[in-house]
Structure formats: structure tokens, C-alpha cells
Write a structure and sequence with these properties.
alpha/beta, Rossmann fold, 3 domains, eleven-stranded mixed β-sheet, 15 helices, 11 strands, about 40% helix, about 20% strand, globular
């Protein structure tokens, strides 16, 4: 953790600056330590350079995955043993935590085409938008979007619930403008009105309460700042029907077994969709048939990315789909100015949502 990130962090409960205990430092970064709230007494560990500021329901999950750290620092165990919530939403949140923790550390590879992918997601924003701004990547996963936002000149804090923060840090650690923290979208560890912009790509539709997540994020953007979200839209077709049927079993499968299944599915897609698509699309009379092949747009991706996409579709327990009208109500409920809701058709139907946080007294759109 760099000093700059420490300056930005706040206690998620009390929203006050935190005291820092450094156990190990290297190259002006805190490798291991603890952040302590002077008001409520909560202590948040810093493990492998990353502040871990999770809600109590997930603190036990963090402890199980970082036993070596807690063996060295048992004074931080008490909070990490709390919070074994048994509600349906708590169980789903834990499964989501475990799913993305496994997924993005197993499939956290960087490829050059991720840059075009990022710009496609955030359209109409362009690289010039990011220059000189302070932003937040809410649900940063393994850091593929975070990496390009900072390359375009922004300083960005990547926030993620899961152990994917390890991959995000690994993929962005060479850029001093990139920061990573493990935390919760519902209660981010920042002061309100901190960021010039905030984006959340492919995250909100996996939350127990997506609307509450969206409303929460608006609070952390400065007046006049921009908020961007990418969420699933209505989906249909053969591939979606097959996915929904498989998810009845796969959301409860062991992750290693599920990965093996996804490898088999990716092989099937290569043989019966991607290779035929490449051939048929070269024949004008057969181009229409090529477009009917399931998930044919993945033909351009490396095999590991196809496996990762299958895992993403089949593992996460919560998935919701939204209409334009529903997303318009999200924007209205938060008072976003000049909201834009744009349909994105690649990789099935989805939506880009962009709005401006109003300044005090500004007219709302």
C-alpha cells in the first residue's frame, strides 16, 4: 500500500481517517500492517500490499485464505472470526466472494486486446477523458480495466470484494497511479465525494441488491463527476437457455470440477462454433448462417479466455438482467444529470449507463 492510498482510505463504518501500523515495508510501500479506526476501534489488515476492508460477514472468508498472516498477527483474528451470516443474501455473497476469488486468480492473464475491450465497454468515454483525474474502479476484478485507465493518465483505486485483488495488484503494481483495496461496494472505504469519476463494469448485476449498490456508488463521486456502469440487458437464444439450465447445478459445483467442465465446453465451442464461423464467414452466401452460431464472437479470443468466460457465466450465484426503463429509474432515483443509457450488443445484449452527479442546486435530468 502506497502512502497516497492510505491518505484516501477511511473507516467504512465511521468514515474517519485511519491510524497505520506498519509490520513490513518495502520500496516505500506497506507490505504487511494494519489500519485502525480511532473512533470505533476496528482493525483492518494489510496483506500482500493490499488493505483488506471487508464487511464482517466476509472477514472469516478472508481469514481462511490468509492463515499465514493471521498466524503471525493473532491480535487481528477477533474481527476476522466474526460474521457468519446465514441469511440467503449472506450465503450468496460468500459464494460470490469465493467464485471471483478463484476465477480471477486462475484466469487473471493480461492480453493486448483488453484495451479495445475496455474502450468498448466505457463508450462514449475516450482515453482523453481519464487524463489527470482521480477515479475508482468498483469491482476491479483482476485489474484489466484499471490498468488502462491509469495508462491514460488517471489515478485510480481498484476496489473489489474478492481475492481477485491479488491479481489486480500484480497486473498494475508497476504504475504508481494504480491502487488496490479489498472492500465492499455497499460501504466503500472512502469519504463521500472523493472521486472525479467512478465506473463499475460487469459487477452490479451480480449483487444481492444492485439498486442499493448503484445508489451507494453515486455518493463517492464529486459534484460534476461522472458515473459509468455496464450491466446485463435482456438475453435470449440457445446459448442463454443452455447457460440458465446448467447454472442450476454449476453454481453449487466445486470450482476445480467446474473449471474442467468449462474446458470441455470451450473445446466444444471451438470445434462446433468458432472454427465453423471462421470458415463460413468467408463465404458471402453463408455469412448469415455463420452469425447464427452460438457465442461465435469468441472465436478471436485465446482458448483460456473462452474457458474463463464459461466459468464466469456458470459460477456466480446471482445474475440479474435489466431493461432500459429499469436503468432509467436507477438514474432518476440518484438524481444523475443528463443520463445516457446505450445498448451494447456484443457478447449478448447489455447496457452502458452514464450520468453526471449533480452540483448542489443543479437541475436534474
Amino acid at each position: 500500500m502506497r502512502k497516497r492510498l492510505y491518505e484516501l482510505l477511511r473507516c467504512p463504518s465511521c468514515v474517519v481517517p485511519l491510524d497505520l501500523d506498519v509490520y513490513e515495508a518495502r520500496d516505500d510501500e506497506t507490505v504487511e500492517g494494519a489500519l485502525r479506526c480511532p473512533r470505533c476501534g476496528a482493525a483492518y489488515p494489510i496483506i500482500d500490499h493490499i488493505p483488506r476492508m471487508l464487511p464482517e460477514d466476509l472477514a472469516g472468508e478472508m481469514r481462511a485464505l490468509n492463515q499465514g498472516f493471521f498466524a503471525r498477527h493473532p491480535d487481528l483474528l477477533s474481527r476476522a472470526q466474526k460474521g457468519d451470516g446465514n441469511s440467503e443474501s449472506a450465503r450468496a455473497l460468500k459464494r460470490t466472494f469465493r467464485s471471483f476469488s478463484f476465477q480471477w486468480n486462475a484466469f487473471g492473464d493480461m492480453y493486448g486486446f483488453w484495451e479495445d475491450n475496455f474502450l468498448d465497454y466505457v463508450e462514449p468515454l475516450t482515453p482523453e477523458f481519464f487524463e489527470g483525474k482521480l477515479g475508482c474502479d468498483a469491482g476491479c476484478g483482476f485489474g484489466r480495466h484499471l490498468r488502462y485507465a491509469v495508462e491514460y493518465g488517471a489515478e485510480v483505486v481498484g476496489l473489489d470484494l474478492s481475492e481477485a485483488v491479488l491479481a489486480a495488484y500484480r497486473n498494475t503494481r508497476d504504475n504508481p497511479r494504480a491502487h488496490v483495496v479489498q472492500g465492499d461496494i455497499y460501504r466503500p472505504p472512502f469519504a463521500p465525494k472523493t472521486f472525479d469519476f467512478l465506473y463499475s463494469i460487469g459487477v452490479l448485476h451480480h449483487l444481492p441488491d444492485p439498486v442499493a449498490g448503484f445508489c451507494s456508488l453515486v455518493r463517492y463521486v464529486k459534484p460534476g463527476g461522472r458515473l459509468f456502469a455496464w450491466v446485463y440487458g435482456p438475453r435470449g437464444g440457445v446459448s442463454e437457455s443452455v447457460t440458465r439450465t446448467l447454472r442450476r447445478a454449476t453454481t453449487r459445483m466445486d470450482y476445480r470440477l467446474l473449471r474442467a467442465l468449462c474446458v470441455a465446453l470451450a473445446v466444444g465451442l471451438r470445434l462446433f462454433s468458432h472454427y465453423p464461423y471462421r470458415l463460413l464467414s468467408k463465404v458471402p452466401a453463408l455469412a448469415g448462417l455463420a452469425q447464427r452460431l452460438p457465442i461465435h464472437d469468441h472465436h478471436r479470443y485465446p482458448f483460456r479466455v473462452v474457458v474463463a468466460d464459461a466459468f464466469d457465466r456458470l459460477s456466480v450465484p446471482l445474475v440479474r438482467y435489466y431493461s432500459r426503463d429499469e436503468l432509467r429509474r436507477w438514474c432518476e432515483s440518484t438524481g444523475l444529470v443528463d443520463p445516457q443509457i446505450r445498448r451494447r450488443f456484443r457478447n449478448n445484449e447489455s447496457w452502458r449507463v452514464l450520468g453526471t452527479v449533480p452540483a448542489p442546486g443543479a437541475a436534474r435530468g
